[in-house]
Amino acid sequence: MSAVFDIDVSLARGDFRRQVQVQSDARVLALTGVSGAGKTSLLQAIAGLLRPRAGRIAVAGRTLFDSAERIDLPAHRRHIGFVFQDARLFPHLAVRANLGYGARFAKDRTPRFAFDDVVALLGIAPLLARRTVNLSGGEAQRVAIGRALLSQPDLLLLDEPLASLDQARREELIPYLQRVRDDSGLPMIYVSHVADEVRRMADTVLALDAALR
Ligand SMILES: Nc1ncnc2c1ncn2[C@@H]1O[C@H](COP(=O)(O)OP(=O)(O)OP(=O)(O)O)[C@@H](O)[C@H]1O
């Protein structure tokens, strides 16, 4: 049986170069490291948004990239949900339509996450008719997480999902993130600088040291 996360890639972006090796059976992996260590770049490489120079990326037994085998699945075929620091909702669409946007990517997939279940899990039923511009930062992040789940992903990547919130809003959002972690059963990579957050979200931590140039 292969590891949940089986990654060995060399990343390059401008002058930035780094090798990342991860072999882990943890379902939820936290990724820490100083600014510029390459955390976002690694997530983008996994999601198919940044092409590694060489190497291999496999998650839960599925090979997403393998330079030797000439495998490089396009982003939309990787089935990855991505949650960013800022929610990146569509401002012209109501919450319900933003959630529906996630589902557009899942037409050919057996739904694992049902609309009503996701809405209940994230407590966003009262927000469905609202315009996204009026949401608080924490509410917007819950909608963004819902949108990611409704794309029926096989893997969830969270890139500092609490970083743009104040401390009180962070405390409000953490239980929702923990519910998503526990109820979805999805493999997850959770990027954060904050030790306490990492401890509460993941049992295995991968620390990227400062990148060598
Ligand atoms: N579009 C780009 N073109 C050139 N270099 C880039 C680009 N995006 C990022 N970099 C560089 O790649 C390196 C890694 O950046 P990355 O965003 O992956 O780090 P990070 O660990 O996520 O940092 P942070 O915690 O600040 O978000 C940095 O040196 C950054 O300056």
Automatic annotation (TrEMBL):
<keyword id="KW-0067">ATP-binding</keyword>
<dbReference type="GO" id="GO:0016887">
    <property type="term" value="F:ATP hydrolysis activity"/>
</dbReference>
<protein>
    <submittedName>
        <fullName>Molybdate transport system ATP-binding protein</fullName>
    </submittedName>
</protein>
<keyword id="KW-0547">Nucleotide-binding</keyword>
<dbReference type="GO" id="GO:0005524">
    <property type="term" value="F:ATP binding"/>
</dbReference>
<dbReference type="InterPro" id="IPR027417">
    <property type="entry name" value="P-loop_NTPase"/>
</dbReference>
<dbReference type="InterPro" id="IPR003593">
    <property type="entry name" value="AAA+_ATPase"/>
</dbReference>
<dbReference type="InterPro" id="IPR003439">
    <property type="entry name" value="ABC_transporter-like_ATP-bd"/>
</dbReference>
<dbReference type="GO" id="GO:0140359">
    <property type="term" value="F:ABC-type transporter activity"/>
</dbReference>
<dbReference type="Pfam" id="PF00005">
    <property type="entry name" value="ABC_tran"/>
</dbReference>
<dbReference type="InterPro" id="IPR017871">
    <property type="entry name" value="ABC_transporter-like_CS"/>
</dbReference>
<feature type="domain" description="ABC transporter">
    <location>
        <begin position="4"/>
        <end position="212"/>
    </location>
</feature>
<dbReference type="GO" id="GO:0015098">
    <property type="term" value="F:molybdate ion transmembrane transporter activity"/>
</dbReference>
<dbReference type="InterPro" id="IPR011868">
    <property type="entry name" value="ModC_ABC_ATP-bd"/>
</dbReference>
<dbReference type="InterPro" id="IPR050334">
    <property type="entry name" value="Molybdenum_import_ModC"/>
</dbReference>
<dbReference type="GO" id="GO:0016020">
    <property type="term" value="C:membrane"/>
</dbReference>
